[in-house]
Each structure stands twice: as C-alpha cells, then as structure tokens.
Design brief:
This protein is α+β, with helices and mostly antiparallel strands and 368 residues long. It has helices at residues 23-31, 56-59, 69-75, 86-101, 125-140, 152-161, 175-179, 192-200, 206-211, 214-221, 223-231, 262-282, 315-329, and strands spanning 15-20, 40-43, 51-54, 80-82, 106-111, 114-118, 144-149, 167-169, 248-259, 285-296, 301-312, 337-349, 361-364. It has four domains: 12-20 and 87-172, 2-Layer Sandwich (Alpha-Beta Plaits); 23-86, MutS, DNA mismatch repair protein, domain I, CATH 3.40.1170.60; 177-231, 5' to 3' exonuclease, C-terminal subdomain (DNA polymerase, domain 1); 248-364, DNA polymerase, Y-family, little finger domain (Dna Ligase, domain 1). It has a five-stranded mixed sheet with strand order 5-6-1-7-8. The radius of gyration is 21 Å and the shape is globular.
C-alpha cells in the first residue's frame, strides 16, 4: 500500500472534517445584525424556488434544505426569506480553506461550506483542530463544527455529533462505543427509503446493523450492503484527494424523502443551475459542458451531459441545458429520486464575462 500523505495505513490516519454551521443563513445573520436570532431562510424566492439553507432558528419550524420555498413560507411565515449571495459565500469559503491550508498538506474541498483535511503527520492533531476552529470564529465571525477521526466517514460522523459549534474527536478504541447507539441514518448512504427497509429487518441502530451478517446485507441491498457492513464497523479506507485546480463546479441536493413529482425535480434543477452559473461567474470561468446527476431511491445513479460549441456562464443556458437533459435524457417512470445534482465542466478562465445569451450545443450521452 502507498503510505504517502493521504494513503496511510488505517490505524495511523488522523482525518478531520470541518463543516460550517448553517452557512448561507449564518453569513446573512453575520452581515445584518437585525437577522441574528431570527429564522433566516436562503434560497430561490420564486414560486418554484427551494430552500438552500435555513438557520437553526428556522429549523425548529421544520424548514430544511431542498424544501419547496412555498412550503417553507407556510411552516415559518415569520421567517426572513433571502436570495443567496454566492460571491460573499465564496469569499468566506476561501478564507476558511486558507486557514486549514496553513496546518494541513492535504485538503479536500467537498463543497463551499465543508472540507476534509489530513492531519496524520501532525502529532498535535487534536490541538490543531481546536486552533483551526477558533481561528475560523475569530477571522470570519462564524461557527463551524469539526470532527477528527481515523478516516473520512468517522470524521464526518464526528462533525455531526455536536452541531452547531461542535468539536468531537473519535479515537480508534472508541469507535464502536460511539457508533453503536447511533441511528442507522447516520451511516453514509442511508436515506429515508433505506432506513425503512432496514427497520423492516429489525435494524434501527448502528449496533443492529453491525450484528447483521454480510450475507444478509448483500442479499437485501446488493453492493450497498457490503458498504453498510463496513461502515457499521467504522471501516473506510477512502483516501483524501489533494487540493487541485478547479476542473468542474457542481451543486447537489439530497432529499429527506424520495421525490416523485417531475415538477419538483425541475424546480430543484433550476435552482441548482442558478447556483452553478453564479459560481462560474464568481470564479471567472466559462464552461463547455453541463451535466445532471440523478440518484434513485434504490441508489442507482446516472449522469447525463451535454456539450457546448463555445463556453458559457449564462444562467439561462445552464438552466435550459440542465432542464433539457432531465426532460429528454432521464427516464423517471414513476421512480423515486433521492438526489439531484447539476454541474458544469471543461472550465476555462476568462478575463471578461461573456455577453452572449445563446449558444448552440449538442447532447452527448453519459452515464455512470
């Protein structure tokens, strides 16, 4: 096994995960003191918009990511509803990544508000994560939750255990003690539908999942069953990817419940496309491909991609292409959808933003 940075033996790794707390909403509360302590909901404000982020005050009313904005307004009529300001979020995201980069040689940015980083070579890893957390607070005015553990999966679990503003360290000898009492939904890949299937098998806690045989899990869930078997034991040898040049930009949403409404899927695709195109412009990129990602209730995942003759950063073009891919290239056929993503690839840096609103493109099939 390659034992270079990011590929250490599992028993030696120290992986951290940092997740900004209610990031978009928290930034709005930071910049506007009147919003502090109030229910702030950020997302598409149109009749077909969806929630991107809700403050913890709004979450008490049942408002969360991917919820239709119309539903959010009914659940929390007193909420403060705001459109996203991606340039501001990117600014803070870069600052947070810069702080992490001063302490870790390998940083994997997962999204605008979270990242994994490798502290295996740091003998003072626990001290470092505390320092990073405090520096983020002082230098951005925002809180984050951080987990430190022997692998990616456990680091992610650790960062979730005491949100918001949490700091949790999982040592190898404590893995099962921490995992066993957790609900199975804390396992990567377990959504509402899988959780229901597991409960039907008498499995509601990670402890129950760990006691299930590999044969039973693979019979019930196929290849996903093997993943569940390993994660229930805290086993995950996935290496971190080094921070690298941006080659694509993407946004995705995982639904709390499987979605069957085509209209709802289209609303989400449009909001994600707006987010992606805004990030293209903020990064001064144009893209020559647009793709969508669909994950069904049974975990089958497909991607569909279309290419442009010339690059674009236009919201109208990205949105139109993404919707076209969904409508013409994805056979939903009454299947439940658990995740939708929109991405832009083949990026090129530009000195000035493009002015044209239309560009020809041709669809190119792509599947995962």
């Amino acid at each position: 096994m390659n034992e270079g940075i990011g590929h250490q033996p599992a028993e030696q790794r120290r992986i951290a995960h940092l997740d900004m707390d209610a990031f978009f909403a928290a930034v709005e509360q930071l910049d506007e003191p009147r919003y502090r302590g109030k229910a702030v909901i950020v997302g598409g404000l149109g009749p077909r918009g969806v929630v991107s982020t809700a403050s913890y005050e709004a979450r008490k009313f049942g408002v969360g990511s991917a919820l239709p904005m119309a539903r959010a307004r009914k659940l929390c009529p007193q909420g403060i509803f705001l459109p996203p300001r991606f340039s501001r979020y990117v600014e803070i995201s870069k600052l947070v990544l810069g702080i992490i980069g001063e302490y870790a040689q390998v940083v994997e940015k997962v999204s605008i508000d979270e990242a994994f980083f490798d502290l295996t070579l740091r003998s003072d890893a626990e001290k470092v994560v505390a320092i990073i957390k405090e520096r983020v607070r002082k230098e951005t005015g925002l809180t984050c939750s951080v987990g430190l553990a022997p692998n990616r999966f456990l680091a992610k679990v650790a960062s979730e255990l005491e949100k918001p503003d949490g700091l949790v360290v999982i040592n190898r000898e404590d893995v099962q003690e921490i995992l066993d009492p957790l609900p199975v939904r804390m396992i990567w890949g377990v959504g509402k539908a899988t959780e229901r299937r597991l409960r039907g098998l008498g499995i509601s806690l990670v402890r129950d999942l760990r006691r299930a045989s590999l044969q039973q899990l693979t019979r019930e869930f196929g290849s996903v069953g093997r993943l569940l078997y390993c994660l229930a034991r805290g086993e995950d040898d996935t290496p971190l990817n080094r921070k690298s040049k941006t080659r694509s930009i993407s946004r995705e949403v995982t639904f709390a419940q499987d979605v069957y409404s085509t209209r709802r899927m289209e609303e989400v695709v449009q909001d994600l496309a707006r987010s992606v195109s805004a990030q293209l412009r903020e990064g001064r990129f144009i893209a020559k491909t647009v793709r969508i990602k669909i994950r069904f209730a049974d975990f089958e995942t497909i991607t569909r991609q279309a290419s442009l003759v010339t690059g674009t950063d236009s919201t109208d073009i990205v949105k139109g292409m993404a919707l076209d891919l969904l409508r013409r290239r994805v056979d939903i056929s009454g299947r439940g959808v658990r995740l939708i993503g929109v991405g832009a690839g083949r990026l090129c840096k530009v000195d000035a933003r493009q002015l044209s609103l239309f560009s020809e493109y041709e669809a190119i099939p792509m599947s995962s």
